[in-house]
Amino acid sequence: MEKLNPFEIAQEQLDTCAKILNLDQATHELLRRPMREIWVSLPVRMDDGSTKVFQGFRVQYNDAKGPTKGGIRFHPQETIDTVRALAAWMTWKCSLLDLPLGGGKGGVICNPKEMSQGELERLSRAYIRAIHPFIGPDKDIPAPDVYTNPQIMAWMADEYSKACGKNQFGVVTGKPLAVGGSAGRGDATARGGLYTVREAAKALGIDLKGARVAIQGFGNAGYYAAVLAQSMLGCKIVAVSDSRGGIFNEQGIDPEEAKAHKGKTGSVVELAGTSSITNEALLELDVDILIPAALENVITERNAANVKAKIVAELANGPTTPEADDILYKNGVHVIPDFLCNAGGVTVSYFEMVQNFYMYYWDEAEVHERLDKKMTVAYKSVFDTSKQYEINMRQAAYVVAVKRVAEAMKLRGWV
Ligand SMILES: NC(=O)C1=CN([C@@H]2O[C@H](COP(=O)(O)OP(=O)(O)OC[C@H]3O[C@@H](n4cnc5c(N)ncnc54)[C@H](O)[C@@H]3O)[C@@H](O)[C@H]2O)C=CC1
Ligand SMILES: O=C(O)CCC(=O)C(=O)O
């Protein structure tokens, strides 16, 4: 049976890298498990007067290279193992992009779609009250992830600031511009990913003008990926989807029309002029570029052989299992692995931290230029490593990232 526990998958990926790098036993063991986990119970007054107790986690995976950093998910199916895996991947992501940061992640088991704004605000504040001794602008810095957004970050920054008795905007990133956010953070995850798609297309000799793109997930990552693939790279978006299903149009889908329809109906499904497609069928479409931008484990050994895309650009974290990775590699599909492809978000979050410390803010053009440079360098280092070691792109990303964390642990005298 194929392993689908995200943390076991993250450990298996690390084990493969440990063999390639011939890591010593202590380094390998330390990198296989989180440094620290915080489990919290959050009593929240609901609108009907009852009190509901939510469970939350914050995993600080490794801080050898700097304070831990990573988003917070609000999701009904959140588990500690998903958060552990996401925190491990944050560690490799920050290292791969050469950011002076470690990796962490948070999660709260809840269904934001069934909660009012007031309930979400009280939950966000309760979470920060519970973890505030363990976070801080130079300790651990949360950010948005699935079903959390800039408004939630503003409440969290405010709650932390109240606990400290002074403004501490730098405790979270992905904030609105009016309270210490950075220009360019909104579309940074997608933009960074598309810079890597541009580099991959150059390396593989693929013409992106009119290239057909399918995107799974239509939130922060997926929506902006659609907008920018069209406007920045000249691609045609033929399919998009969300948790309720997908839509297809051979002639192309206008991302703004899809967004407006989702705003009105809650989903992209049934947008005029499109036909329906399932989330599973979307992954197997005959397209040039496939962008998983929703959740984990969607490309598995069951469907990997049916993926027809030339490039799989993983904006989601953990969309591909190790078995599927082997199949895609054998079939010549170029995978831009998650912690490379979606690193634009944390990179601009890091820029936001720098601007918060500095109290001086850059314009959007400056953010884009700095992001492009970081993503391009990271893509090239992974591509060159994959050629040098004759390994797939994910293993190559691990080699570059893990080497740096291992070196930091050695220099600090931990191993
Ligand atoms: N927001 C960010 O800065 C970053 C996000 N990511 C990753 O990108 C992925 C998406 O995150 P966001 O766009 O931020 O979240 P979001 O909450 O803005 O959007 C999530 C989207 O996925 C869809 N979705 C949920 N379950 C689905 C399912 N089973 N099948 C198809 N679609 C489904 C939702 O309908 C929604 O459109 C996640 O894996 C996240 O960890 C990675 C790096 C940074
Ligand atoms: O912006 C950040 O700090 C982290 C974003 C995130 O959670 C991720 O890259 O998976």
Describe the protein in words.
The protein is an alpha/beta fold. The protein has 2 domains: 34-172, Leucine Dehydrogenase, chain A, domain 1 (Rossmann fold), CATH 3.40.50.10860; 188-341, 3-Layer(aba) Sandwich (Rossmann fold). It has 14 helices and 12 strands. Strands 9-8-7-6-10-11-12 form a 7-stranded mixed sheet, with helices on both faces. Strands 1-2-4-3-5 form a 5-stranded mixed sheet. Helix 6 (188-204) crosses helix 7 (220-231). It is globular. The mean pLDDT is 98. Bound molecules: 1,4-dihydronicotinamide adenine dinucleotide and 2-oxoglutaric acid (AKG). 2-oxoglutaric acid is lined by residues 69-71, 90, 93, 143, 145, 173-174, 317, 342, 345-346, 349. Keywords: NAD, Nucleotide-binding, Oxidoreductase. NAD(+) binds at residues 189, 220. This is Glutamate dehydrogenase. GO terms for molecular function: glutamate dehydrogenase (NAD+) activity; nucleotide binding.
CATH topology of the largest domain: Rossmann fold
Any ligands, ions or cofactors bound here, and which? 1,4-dihydronicotinamide adenine dinucleotide, 2-oxoglutaric acid
Beta-strand residue fraction: 15-25%
The average pLDDT is 98
Which class do the helix and strand fractions yield? alpha/beta
Percent of residues in helices: 40-55%
Radius of gyration, CA atoms, in whole angstroms:
20 Å
Name the poorly predicted regions. Answer: none
Give the tally of β-strands: 12
| Major beta sheet, strand line-up | 9-8-7-6-10-11-12
Q: In this structure, how is the largest beta sheet organized?
A: 7 strands, mixed
User: What is the rounded distance between the termini?
Assistant: 35 Å
CATH architecture of the largest domain: 3-Layer(aba) Sandwich
What is the overall silhouette? Answer: globular
- What is the assigned CATH homologous superfamily of the largest domain? NAD(P)-binding Rossmann-like Domain
The number of helices is 14
- Count of domain modules: 2
Report the order of strands and helices: HHEEEHEHEHHEHEEHEHEEHEHHHH
